[in-house]
Specification:
The protein is α/β, with parallel strands linked by helices. It has helices at 9-14, 29-45, 60-65, 93-101, 106-113, 132-143, 178-192, 241-244, 253-256, 272-281, 301-308, 403-421, and strands at residues 2-4, 18-24, 50-55, 73-78, 81-88, 119-128, 148-152, 195-198, 202-206, 211-214, 218-227, 231-233, 249-250, 264-268, 287-292, 313-317, 319-327, 330-337, 343-348, 350-353, 357-359, 389-391.
Length: 422
């Protein structure tokens, strides 16, 4: 693996045969997450493909020419031509392997993979999920000198990192950008000494053996596990939703609102998330139509008052989406009036869906006691129904799901474990 500058791009990349080029930045958590994967794969594929790195901040003109808009970004070249997909952000090892394999013959792929050796790593505590609950548990455990690893399929921060503003986290007078709050939490835990394995593929979770297989080759073992896997957005399950997910239908305002500057948007939902995110989206969109199944919003009164005072936002109460279709560059949302049973069509440039969340427990849901809604039951020390398995944050059964309650859960679990392991 070699680092180059912009002046070497022609000789090293365009005339370099098969090349993968990593545009990285400093003070960039996603860059730090992809670096060991990039280096590890260079040892496997390095005889066939040249692995290069380039500092994006000192190569801005080149980055812009190549369409690089975020760090890290991996670009693949074959005899001077860019091939495959550009990978950006929280890049998984499996995604890199897919692009590398596409540059080689099938027989060579198999030969390279025959040299792949499985590995085993062992820790005192394994935390599954690096949102506020998991990060707080990691902080308290490492301060107690307990060897801890955090594993996440995404980057640290959880849903907080995609929340545009957090106005009720103690200690901050002014509202905090969600990504900065989660970044500070993550950096604090990392500097303490917790090991991070993030943006990985989790292939198997065995709670009985307290083992997790990640990226198909590494087995992570621990004496105790904290489940902090959080929740994911509910889907409506109507025609067109799956097909248009990420292609006009979004579940993250922070991620996608900026793409709807001076455009028309439909928002589905009426709880706190829908109402608060509608206010944020209105900073970009020209017009917003809220679609809600009940005759009133369920969001807090302050958020509702702000929404009703916003001239960009109108509401269809007692309506539900029945399907989505793309026509040209527009999304057609078919909605049903629940009182009259008649249907109508809303034409917009995009749709945002905020209709609640579901717990992320698919890989182990049959092992633990759950409540009637599918959330994990815990005791006052965050212990689950299995010995040495704890759970914290939004994934557990509780009345309120907030950043502060997740942080409290993580604290309790870590303190309980630290006392037990003394």
């Amino acid at each position: 693996m070699k680092e180059i500058n912009a002046s070497e791009f022609e000789s090293e990349v365009i005339k370099g045969g098969k090349v993968v080029l990593d545009f990285y930045s400093t003070e960039c958590p996603p860059c730090e997450a992809v670096a060991p994967k990039f280096e590890g794969l260079s040892k496997l594929y390095g005889e066939d493909i040249k692995f290069l790195k380039i500092f994006r901040q000192q190569s801005r003109e080149l980055a812009e020419q190549l369409g690089v808009k975020s760090s890290p970004s991996l670009l693949f070249f074959d005899n001077g031509k860019q091939v495959g997909n550009m990978l950006s952000g929280g890049i998984k090892r499996s995604e890199i392997i897919k692009e590398l394999d596409n540059m080689l013959s099938e027989s060579r792929q198999q030969e390279i993979k025959s040299h792949l050796k499985s590995s085993i790593s062992e820790y005192d505590v394994m935390i599954l999920g690096a949102g506020p609950g998991g990060l707080t548990a990691g902080l308290y455990l490492c301060q107690s000198k307990i060897n801890t690893v955090l594993i996440d399929i995404a980057l640290p921060g959880g849903q907080v990192s995609t929340t545009h503003e957090v106005s009720n986290y103690p200690g901050f007078i002014e509202p905090q950008p969600g990504y900065m709050l989660s970044h500070n939490m993550s950096e604090q835990t990392k500097q303490c000494g917790s090991v991070y394995k993030v943006a990985v593929d989790v292939n198997k979770i065995d709670l009985d053996k307290k083992e997790v297989i990640i990226d198909e080759f590494e087995t992570v073992k621990a004496k105790k596990i904290i489940i902090a896997t959080g929740t994911s957005p509910n889907l409506m399950g109507v025609p067109g939703e799956k097909e248009l997910k990420g292609k006009g239908i979004s579940y993250c305002a922070t991620c996608d609102a900026k793409y709807y500057n001076d455009k028309d948007v439909v928002i589905v939902g009426g709880g706190n998330s829908a109402v608060e995110e509608a206010d944020f989206i209105s900073k970009f969109a020209k017009k917003i139509t809220m679609v809600h199944q009940f005759d009133a919003f369920t969001a807090n009164k302050q958020a509702q008052e702000k929404l009703f005072a916003n001239p960009k936002i109108s509401t269809l109460f007692e309506h539900e989406p029945r399907g989505f279709v793309r026509e040209g560059d527009k999304i057609i949302t078919e909605v049903e009036n629940l009182k009259t049973k008649t249907t109508s069509k809303l034409i917009s440039d995009g749709v945002f869906v905020f209709i609640g969340m579901k717990p992320n427990i698919e890989l182990f849901k049959d092992k633990l006691k759950l409540d009637q809604w599918g959330y994990i039951k815990t005791d006052e020390d965050m212990r689950t129904s299995m010995k040495d398995i704890y759970a914290v944050g939004d994934v557990i059964s509780k009345k309120y799901r907030q950043i502060t309650t997740a942080v409290a859960d993580g604290t309790i679990a870590a303190v309980a474990i630290a006392k037990e392991m003394d």
